[in-house]
Amino acid sequence: MVSLAIIPLGMSIAHRSSPLYVVLSAVFCLVATCVEGRIRPFLRDLAGALTSPLGLAVLAFFGWSLASAGWSEFKSVSLFSLGELWLPIAAILVLALTLPKHLTQQMFWLLTGTFLVAGIVIMAELATGLILRRAIGVRSDPFIFNRPVLTLLMLALPLTAWLLGNVRRGVIWGLALLLFLSAVVIRSESDAAVLGLAIICLTFPMAWFLPRVTFGLTAFAVLMAFCVSPLIGPITAQLITPAMHEKIASSHSRERVELWQSFGFVVRQKPILGSGFGISPRMAETTIAQKVPVEHQRMLNIGHPHNAALQIWVELGAIGAAIAVLVAFLTLRMVWQLPHLTRCASMALIAGAGPVALVGHGAWQGWWAASLGAAIIWMQAASRFQTETKL
């Protein structure tokens, strides 16, 4: 429990460390399960989870990802990416089956404490120009705090659900947490976090008062994201005017449009099967890249398309994209069955994470999978605590 609760603080110190904490927590849980003599019930629960509709869809996505490594031009890169993504996912599965029923109110208070300390550390570091990091000779670029800020953004939702459902004057404390998070997000250099926070602030109240409408819009947005992503480059090139580019220059909008166009050309080369899981960091060196128009080859050196849906199309093709949509829809179906308060927070979590993934980091980065997974575990625990609650 402690390992999972200190993720915010750990990320504020080492900005890719969330996989370490979820894997460590999962190992502790497995050891405890063995010591308690509950390994057989755990294995039954695991089998049940993996043979559920969502479990089978996730296994299909894993199987297709693994199979795609067979036609990857850089198989070692593909295998490394598979490990980076699926190790934290496996750890989160273990935690989901063992830990939520044990997470206590005290652990939520510990998470709240590490959340606040992490935010203070981030703002202090940025305010001082990362002088401490410079003094000890470690990486001191301001953007390294984008990952811990996004982790705070995701963890804020289960914390809010718990505050609203279990703490006296929870509305006040929830708003205070939101204001604190807003200060951290605005102080950071993460435009993706600003976008995610804005959408979360719109989605949560909308899900509270119009749950069916919000659910439908979320499902539609997921579908459209995957349908449009192969053409997102040409579309945004037409829609975003030079004047608009000037206003949002800090978001590197021109570079993103060029990047999306370049990887869109890659999709056209292998639209069904894709180029192989995790190949994006070496895309510029592939034979596929040589078929892309010369003026668009330069941006293939960036490392990934900064759009998770487009990256899935690039690496896993239409088949991978279809499986990913199925996973998303089955996840939404499970969210709909949650108690009202936790359902609102979960829909806000999905709505906030989606745009971040569509404009930000690589799809398979382990820190993102671990941070999202940790938020899901805390959300499960918040759901367990929830009773009939009204604002």
TrEMBL record:
Q: Does the keyword Iron apply?
A: no
Report domain O-antigen ligase-related positions.
177-324
The record's subcellular locations are: Membrane
Q: Which segments cross the bilayer? A: 20-39, 46-67, 79-99, 108-132, 144-163, 170-186, 192-210, 217-240, 308-332, 367-385
Assigned keywords, A-Z? Membrane, Transmembrane, Transmembrane helix
Name the domain of life this protein comes from: Bacteria
Q: How does it sit in the membrane?
A: Multi-pass membrane protein
One GO cellular component term of this record is:
membrane
UniProt-listed InterPro entries: O-antigen_ligase-rel_domated, WaaL-like
Does the record carry Transmembrane as a key word? yes
Q: What is this protein called?
A: O-antigen ligase-related domain-containing protein
Species assigned in the record: Microvirga vignae
